[in-house]
Specification:
Blueprint lengths: L2 H9 L9 H30 L3 H24 L2 H23 L14 H9 L2 H26 L7 H51 L2 H8 L6 E14 L2 H6 L3 H21 L3 E6 L2 E6 L8 H20 L3 E15 L5 E5 L1 H11 L6 E4 H7 L5 E9 L3 E8 L30
Parallel strand pairs: 4-6
Antiparallel strand pairs: 1-3, 1-4, 2-3, 4-5, 6-8, 7-8
Helix pairs in contact: 1-2, 2-3, 2-7, 3-4, 4-5, 4-6, 5-6, 10-11
Length: 430
């Protein structure tokens, strides 16, 4: 294990599996801070001992002992609050005590600066409110140091000038360096955590956009609690795989899912290409709409062009035929659910489009009279006559003449729909 691995292992001695990333980061940073200052205190202990200032040397040495014991207890008990309070108190009081034994600001080379690591640590490890209290304590320590300095300066052994200057530099660099390293580590880990959060947010947004259209998703994220819109003219298309039930009985589960995935993935691409909104899949049925969010005047044409392409893709990918039903009219659209969102359409147009599909012919596009009227400037139709539609009664309907379609038995015809009236299958969606 390299030094970086050992350092990371040391940092995590008090981290619990249940800790959030932010809580774990605070614990890791405090452990590294305590370990770093404990190691650095060797310089003060050795120097003051060599100068014969044994009481002064004993103070940083006592800090080392208490800090090592505190780290050991934290690793064993995981009591973060006690560990944090103890470390902050040591950082605040012991530099002040060391300055008293050395003779004030000048003689101690301003060692009381190390007390600033207490409010700085509190800010990182406890939050702003606790940091304010620790900063107030630091101000009190500085004020006491200033008040006692004239008395202490005349009662302390003389320390060589070069040592005092060196320790001034060491104290300034030590405090600022410790602060920089703490902030650097904290910010680095915070940025890593922020990147993870951003990646997770992006993934969540992609998942949301797989469920909801982009404008609807944006409205939901902006705080709208109820999304319900009425649209006066929407093209609704249902496509269903003909004879899917007997087909599925002959296939292994994995093969069946792979087939549906290939076909519906191709349909998704066509919906995006033609500017349509995929609403949902229901078993082997697929539902899309036009004019829902993009209300251009040509949206019915794009819906039918997509339907024609869907027929060809279904035959190419799986040798299967679709029954397609279309109606055009008013709908209500909205989002339901609070945990699992669903964007759906309601209204007579939706029900009728579903009936056009279930009463349709494999390979054909079956439409209502109002859909034919709206689409007549782009496509030609054949009157199917009046048929009895489940839940609707007698209705006149039409078949799109192109492209060539198949009969109910699945045999290619000359491009004209079969006159056979096909009864709805069990997969009727509404």
């Amino acid at each position: 294990m390299g030094w970086r691995g050992k350092l990371e292992r040391l940092a995590r001695i008090g981290v619990l599996p249940t800790d959030s990333r932010e809580e774990a980061l605070r614990k890791e940073t405090l452990v590294l801070s305590a370990a770093f200052i404990t190691f650095l205190a060797v310089v003060w202990v050795g120097t003051y001992w060599a100068l014969g200032l044994y009481l002064s040397a004993a103070i940083p040495f006592a800090y080392q002992i208490v800090s090592v014991v505190n780290l050991s207890l934290f690793a064993k008990t995981k009591r973060y609050r006690f560990f944090r309070t103890c470390e902050l108190a040591l950082s605040l009081i012991l530099p002040f005590a060391l300055q008293l034994t050395l003779g004030g600001f000048v003689a101690s080379s301003g060692v009381v600066l190390w007390s600033f690591t207490a409010p700085l640590g509190a800010l990182l490890f406890s939050g702003r409110r606790a940091a304010a209290r620790w900063f107030g304590a630091f101000v009190v320590v500085i004020a006491l140091s200033a008040a006692l300095d004239p008395v202490l300066a005349s009662k302390t052994a003389e320390i060589p000038y070069w040592i005092r200057v060196s320790f001034f530099a060491l104290n300034v660099l030590g405090v600022t360096g410790t602060g920089y390293l703490l902030l650097h580590y904290f910010v680095r880990e915070r940025d890593v955590a922020a990147d993870l959060v951003a990646a997770e947010r992006e993934r969540s947004e992609r998942l949301l956009l797989n469920i909801l259209p982009h404008p609807i998703a944006e409205r939901l994220k902006s705080g709208e609690s109820l999304i319900a819109d009425g649209s006066p003219e929407v093209g609704v298309l249902f496509a269903d795989i003909a004879r899917f039930t007997p087909l599925s009985a002959t296939m292994e589960p994995q093969e069946l899912v792979q087939l549906l995935n290939r076909v519906f993935t191709a349909f998704d691409a066509l919906a995006a290409e033609y500017g349509l909104e995929k609403i949902k899949t229901i078993g082997d049925a697929y539902m899309i709409a036009s004019g829902l969010l993009d209300r251009g005047t040509d949206h019915p044409r794009r819906l039918v062009e997509a339907a024609l392409r869907m027929q060809r893709e279904a035959r190419r990918l799986g040798g299967i035929y679709l029954r397609v039903g279309i109606d055009i009219g008013p709908v209500v659209a909205g989002v339901i659910g609070t945990r699992k969102f669903s964007y759906d359409l309601w209204g007579d147009t939706v029900n009728t489009a579903s009936r056009m599909e279930s009463h349709g012919v494999p390979g054909a596009i079956h439409v209502t009279v109002r859909a034919r009227t709206r689409l007549s400037e782009w496509f030609e139709f054949e009157d199917r006559g009046v048929i009895d539609v489940k839940g609707k009664g007698p209705m006149r309907t039409h078949f799109l003449l192109e492209p060539a379609i198949t009969s109910a038995e699945g045999r290619p015809t000359d491009g004209r729909p079969s006159e056979l009236t096909v009864a709805p299958e069990e997969s009727d969606v509404l």
